[in-house]
């Protein structure tokens, strides 16, 4: 049940969030100097009036959370309510009322002082502090699918931090400053189409075209047209009121660069006979490939460069013990550095990546499985991780089995593991 009443202003607070939706600004949460609050206020611009909105299903009183706008909704993630949080709420400004946002997948670890940005149908969470350490992981929430996933990035990104700012411009998320235990003034771009980090050169002061912003955290940042604006913050000694602008470019819409097509172009060559110079036989089917792309794999590089008989004599090279769909996924990765990975094939692809020595693909599969361990598949994952010497996956699945032994020991996968390798069962029993 929700009620509202007109007030003269919102109650005092800091470490809250504020968003603008249509003709109103909404302020939620924060710290009033004595206690955390979960009060929600709106300010209606045309009438210049404040309203306090009381809602029974509001998130717990908290501060240092993050918020974004999507449509008519104000979305609130994480924060600190006496514990570090990773919960996700939406306040519907059109219909009224708070609701928990449906979430599946790998939910980010609890944290505060992180940032959230929206791009198309996605929300990106970066950094923060989990109560033990600073973070620099990137998580993505798909609003249409209602699913979280961890973003595997490339390039040299920001070191772990909290109290930074993040904004979206074009197809990129930009991160400036923050605290790593010391104040920072580095500036980074994450391309959201390629998931690659790039450093960004310095900005400029408004009214001062020289220099760059000093170190700071707990500042604010916004995007206005083709500029990012930074104001204030704390440098560890002084509270700041300087004002800085970074210009992304001039009139980008007049000369917009089309998105890169190299990944889709290379993906079109996977299994294509066009310009192919090697053929494999997989499950009695011919699979065409291109030697130059196979050179990214140590197994095929040794085959093609090492004078093996396969590289010079055989027109069709048989591939044993790998299903065609798995081999095609392996080729897709070698051609594009990316694979659309379903959980159903993650283990098989992990085994193929191990067989052919594609270490990064093994890690991608391992990451997928780490976030999807259940009572029913834990023993299977543990057994496969042991066979293929995947230490991280083995440790995580073993810990899961120990924590849920009564249920896991009754699963079909545990029985199958016991039949194939009783030594693993004995290891588990010794650790209980």
TrEMBL record:
Annotated Gene Ontology cellular component terms: Golgi apparatus
Entries under PROSITE patterns matching the protein: BTB
Species in which this protein is naturally found: Triparma laevis f. longispina
InterPro entries in alphabetical order: BACK (IPR011705), BTB/POZ_dom (IPR000210), Kelch-typ_b-propeller (IPR015915), Kelch_1 (IPR006652), LZTR1/Attractin (IPR051568), SKP1/BTB/POZ_sf (IPR011333)
Residue span, BTB domain: 276-343
Pfam families hit by this protein: BACK, BTB, Kelch_1, Kelch_KLHDC2_KLHL20_DRC7
The protein's name in its UniProt record: BTB domain-containing protein
Keyword vocabulary terms for this entry: Kelch repeat, Repeat
SUPFAM superfamilies membership: Kelch motif (SSF117281), POZ domain (SSF54695)
Lineage: Eukaryota, Sar, Stramenopiles, Ochrophyta, Bolidophyceae
């Amino acid at each position: 049940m929700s009620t509202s009443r007109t007030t003269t202003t919102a109650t005092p607070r800091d470490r809250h969030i504020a968003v603008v939706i249509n003709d109103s600004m909404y302020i939620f949460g924060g710290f009033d100097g004595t206690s955390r609050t979960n009060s929600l206020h709106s300010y209606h611009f045309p009438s210049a009036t404040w309203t306090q909105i009381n809602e029974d299903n509001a998130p717990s009183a908290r501060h240092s959370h993050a918020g974004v706008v999507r449509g008519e909704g104000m979305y609130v993630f994480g924060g600190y309510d006496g514990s570090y949080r990773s919960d996700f709420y939406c306040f519907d400004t059109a219909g009224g009322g708070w609701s928990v946002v449906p979430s599946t997948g790998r939910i980010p670890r609890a944290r505060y002082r992180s940032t959230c940005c929206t791009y198309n149908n996605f929300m990106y969470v970066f950094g923060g502090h989990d109560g033990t350490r600073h973070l620099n992981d990137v998580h993505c929430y798909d609003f249409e699918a209602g699913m979280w996933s961890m973003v595997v990035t490339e390039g040299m990104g920001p070191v772990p931090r909290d109290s930074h700012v993040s904004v979206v411009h074009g197809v990129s998320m930009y991160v400036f400053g923050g605290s790593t235990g010391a104040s920072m003034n580095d500036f980074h771009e994450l391309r959201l189409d390629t998931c690659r980090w790039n450093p960004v050169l310095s900005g400029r002061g408004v009214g001062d075209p020289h220099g760059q912003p000093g170190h700071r955290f707990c500042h604010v940042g916004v995007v206005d047209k083709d500029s990012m604006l930074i104001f204030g913050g704390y440098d560890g000694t002084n509270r700041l009121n300087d004002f800085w602008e970074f210009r992304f470019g001039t009139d980008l819409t007049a000369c917009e660069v089309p998105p890169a097509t190299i990944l889709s172009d290379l993906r079109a060559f996977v299994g294509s006979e066009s310009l192919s110079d090697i053929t494999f036989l997989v499950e009695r089917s011919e699979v065409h490939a291109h030697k130059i792309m196979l050179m990214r794999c140590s197994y095929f590089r040794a085959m093609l460069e090492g004078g093996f008989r396969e590289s010079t004599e055989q027109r069709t090279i048989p591939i044993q013990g790998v299903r065609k769909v798995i081999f095609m996924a392996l080729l897709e990765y070698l051609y594009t550095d990316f694979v659309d990975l379903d959980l159903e094939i993650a283990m098989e692809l992990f085994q193929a990546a191990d067989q052919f020595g594609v270490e990064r693909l093994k890690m991608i599969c391992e990451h997928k499985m780490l976030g999807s361990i259940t009572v029913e598949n834990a023993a299977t994952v543990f057994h496969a991780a042991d066979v293929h010497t995947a230490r991280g996956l083995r440790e995580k699945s073993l810990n899961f089995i120990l924590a849920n032994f009564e249920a896991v020991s009754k699963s079909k996968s545990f029985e199958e593991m016991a039949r194939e390798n009783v030594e693993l069962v004995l290891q588990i029993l010794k650790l209980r």
